[in-house]
Structures are given as structure tokens and as C-alpha cells.
Amino acid sequence: MNFVATGIGAGLVSALLTAVIVKATPLAAMLYLLAPIPVLIVSLGWDHRSGLVAAVVGGLAIALILSPLSGIGFALITALPAWWLSYLALLGRPGQDGTMEWYPVGRLLAWAAATAALTIIAAGVISTGGDYGAFAQNTRDVAEAFVNAQFAATGEGALDAETREQLIAIFSRLTSFLSAQGFVTILALYLWAAGRIVLASKRLPRPWPPVPELVMPRSAGLILIGALILANFDGFIGALGLALSGAFLMAFALQGLAAVHDRTRGKSGRAFLLSAMYVLIFVTQGILMVALALFGIADSTFGLRRRFGTRPTPPPTLST
Q1: What stretch of H or E contains 281?
Q2: SS3 for 159?
Q3: 221: left (phi > 0), else alpha (psi -120 to 50), else beta?
Q4: Partners of 93 in the beta sheet?
Q5: For residue 100, what are the β-bridge partners?
Q6: pTM for the whole thing?
Q7: What gap in Å lies between CA 179 and CA 117, rounded to an integer?
Q8: Between vectors from CA 59 to CA 53 and to CA 62, what angle results, nearest 5°?
Q9: Complete DSSP assignment for 103-150
């Protein structure tokens, strides 16, 4: 029953980190962003069932502290995605030579993208009771606040009404796309960080995987194509298509980033090249990530690194 005790502790810590958001301070926002970490740590270091216990306990605590809807939101957005990815990360099966074959990090990244997109849309459906009109109004409110903040930050004059309305409409349409992009980045970063913490404590059951060598399965490219087609529809179907498109494009960009780390290993000036690349990503506000995403797509589809190096064959499907 050790997993129950650790799950309760992690759930309460995660709930506390979530509840401080009501303080509406920068520190509270930073603590809120760390809420999935306890669930990831106990799921990876003790038992994935600890993550489920943490989701239930944390959800109940948030429901009592804030509201029942907030408790559901905690379980859906914070705890369950963290548990699911931890569960996948610890999947393994004995190989033909007797060694354990662990779940590939490429598949794990693909599942992180799918989880991010589905979570974003599920949260929207639950919060609006399935009313797409309310969902569209929420995305418009977010887009309007973003446009106003951008022009307030630049100090430029007010936009004319027509241009402002066009920008709000564009960003309102892309809210699911951009939200899923950010969420898959957070999930991947948190999973990596929690894994390093558990590894340092010597409780990680699997050996640390060669992250720079990750390659998503070819089926991830097919999902991206299907998502781009769905994005042309109206309603929640279109929103899901946009969310999947954003999540998988970001996942492919992360694969491209990993490929650069991989191909520069052992090269002179590697630190300078990687530093320059990250600076360019920051300066160009992520535009370089588009090139990295295209490289990631080509890498999965055509096996670029396998053609020009010795890399393992990517997994053919997303099945567990």
C-alpha cells in the first residue's frame, strides 16, 4: 500500500500548488505551473498507481478548496496527463535476448502531442458544457486580450477597428492551435525534468533513454495530415484539428531540435552552435521552430538520420 501514501502526499502537494493561483501574483503563477511535477515524480519513482491516487486526492482537495469544476479541471488538465505519460514511459517487455525493451521516447513524444491536444479540447468542452458558441466566445476573449496586450507592450498607437477585428478573428481561430503547442512543450519539459529528478534519486526503473536520438513513428505524420484536414471543419471537430496540428507540429519541432543535438555530438564548436540556435529561436520568436518542424517531419518520414548515420528504426505505430 506504499503507492497509496505517496499518491496522497503528491496529490495534496499538487493541489496546494494549484490552489495558490487564487493569489494572482507572479510567484503564485510560477508555483501553479509546477503542479504536475509531484504527480510525475511519484508515478515514475514509485508506481503509476500513485499518480492515479494523486489525481483523485488532488481533485477532491481542489473541489473542496475552490469548486467542483476546478477539481475536475485539476484532474483532467494537470494530473491525468502526467499520470498517462508516466505510465507509458515505464512500459517495457522482455526482448529476444532477455534484456528489457522500454517504451521508445519517440512514441512517448507523439503521445505527449496527442494528450496535449485532446486535453485542451476536453477542457473546453467540459468548461462550456459542450456549447461551441460559448467556447468560441472564450477563445475570442483570449484573443482580444492578447491583441490588446501586444500593442500595449509595443507602445504603438491604437489599431483601426477593421484591422483590430481581423487580428482578433485570426488569433481566436488559432487559440486551440497555439494552446496545444504550448502544452505539449510543457508536458515534454516536465516529463524530462521529473525523470531526471527520479533518476538522481535512483528510483527510476528504466535506464535513461538517449533523448537526442528520439524519432517519432511515421504514423505521427499521418495524424498531422488528418489534423490539418479536420482543421477546415467548423465546431469542436475543427478545434480538435487545430489543436492536433499545433501539438504535432511542435512535437516535430522538438524532434528536429533533438536531431540537431544528436548530429552535433562530438563536433568542435558544438556549444557555440547550440547556443546560437537557441538564441535565434528566442530572437525570431519561434520562427526557427518551423524549420525544425519540417526537418523533424522529414526525419520521421524518410529516416534522414538512419540514411546518414546509425540510428535505430522508428516504431511503426502509436500503439502501446
Answers
A1: helix 270-283
A2: coil
A3: alpha
A4: 101
A5: 94
A6: 0.88
A7: 8
A8: 140
A9: PPHHHHHHHHHHHHHHHHHHHHHHHHTT-HHHHHHHHHHHHHHHHHHH
Q: How far apart are CA 13 and CA 80, in angstroms?
A: 15
Measured distance CA(245)–CA(113) in Å, rounded: 9
Alpha carbon distance 272, 260 (integer Å): 13
Q: Residue 183 to residues 48, 155, 164, 251, 283: CA-CA distances in angstroms?
A: 21, 29, 27, 11, 21
Q: Apex CA 259: angle with CA 119 and CA 88, to 5°?
A: 35
What's the CA gap between 59 and 313, in Å, rounded?
A: 40
Asked whether the beta carbons of 197 and 41 are under 8 A apart, the reply is yes
Kindly report the three-state secondary structure assignment for every residue of 202-260: CCCCCCCCCHHHCCCCHHHHHHHHHHHHHCCCCHHHHHHHHHHHHHHHHHHHHHHHHHH
Question: What pairs with residue 101 in β-bridges?
Answer: 93
Give the three cell numbers for residue 79: 494530473
pLDDT tens, N- to C-terminus, the chain (320 residues): 677 888 899 889 998 888 887 666 777 777 778 889 999 999 999 888 899 999 999 999 999 988 888 888 888 888 999 999 999 999 988 877 778 889 999 999 999 999 999 999 998 888 888 888 898 898 888 888 887 777 665 555 556 677 878 888 888 888 999 999 999 999 999 999 999 999 999 899 989 988 888 899 999 999 999 999 999 998 999 999 999 999 999 999 999 999 888 888 878 888 888 898 889 888 887 788 888 999 999 888 887 776 665 454 444 444 44
